[in-house]
Amino acid sequence: MRIGLFTDTYRPTINGITFVVESLKNNLEAMGHEVYVFCPARTMSLSKRLVLTAEDDHIIRFPSFPSGLFTDFDFTLFFPPRIMHQIEEMELDVIHIFTPSQVGLLGINAAIKNNTPFITQHSTDLYQFVENYPNVLPGILALVGIVFPMSVKLKGKDIREIIKLYRPRTKIMKWNQDIVAKAMTMLYSKADAVIVLSRKSERQLKSWQDKHYRYDLTLMPNGVNAIPHPSEAALRAFRTTWGLSKKDEVFGFVGRLGEEKNLPILIKAFDRVGKARPAAKLLFVGDFEYRKTLEAMAAASKYPDRIIFTGSIPREQLGVAYEVMDVFTFPSLKDTQGWVLHEAAQAHRPIVLIDTEVSEVVHDGENGYYAKNQPTDFANKVTALLSSPAKRRKFGERSKQLAMAYTEKKQMKKLEKLYHDVILDHAEKILAERHNSVLSRGKRLLKKPLRMFMTK
Question: Are residues 395 and 287 in the same domain?
Fold first, then answer.
């Protein structure tokens, strides 16, 4: 198959969507498919893209510039006609959309224009995301009111719904959420299939559907393989750099240090864990704009010298971080899957999390604990694991078993089948529409002489 992956975030940006798209590209190519990635260049000068990241001719970049909203998100508004023509000449068999922004909408436009089946993947919980970033309202309004109509084939009812969204609400957050829910529903209703990564997202998207907008949902978590086990030398170097000993009891988080990740609860919980477990330390691995706020909170906590921020670490080197952690913690309530949960489970880590529907690799009481969104309960769950090496070993083994059900290879097979099914269904739909069109035209022709006769 010839497959087009359309995303508004890709290397050199490092985040979950980047890892997913990169993984899909590599695995699908290994299976014999031809895969193209369409993404921002992160520069207005396309000649500079080779400096940004190692390229191949199957990565098509569009000029872009900083959005001013987030450091890892660009605006992409320039789509040269030659590239649109190039997409048409590629004769893609299926298009896979990962983000509902400019590049993602371009993919939908290309799919509709060229009659190509397309799949959307619900990668980001924008509905919850806007709680932490209410300032995105102007961008969302512009996206839905300007870019959306220019990119997607809209019907009269779609235009009427968009007009309704422009009516101001008393609360900006509610206004943001209303726009997100309706826009996503309209967008997904035009897709041949919608992939959701967790039961939480499946429930959310089902609740948005109404009699006018419906779509087929496929629950399919992204496949994640184990990160290579670190060498002893790498482990020693990591421990030395960050002042960790083998006797320390380490719990922590790996990922984007964003406000939406609910990370302050870890620092608040550590006031209790640190008292109960004198050898405990809290480790944050990752970076983002919210890191400064977290560092200030850590400095004001009871045990500031036992809270460590390493900054970003290349994914292929994250094995050291998972290896030194005795317990992996995931407090986020706004993720759609939690890629790092799979990485931690592959690394035999017991897990404490709050969102009970975000992952299929965490089972309460089997390989981790569900905690309440409250520091005391979270601290109690972490302390219970830190105080029991036997339970950590037992839970760690179960984590590995659960993670092995969702490896890249296994999930790629499911995705490949979904592609085939969507392509077949789309072709049958086209044939049915053409057949109905011919029948309708034939009926009109048959009625015409009769009407003429009756007039006479």
Answer: yes
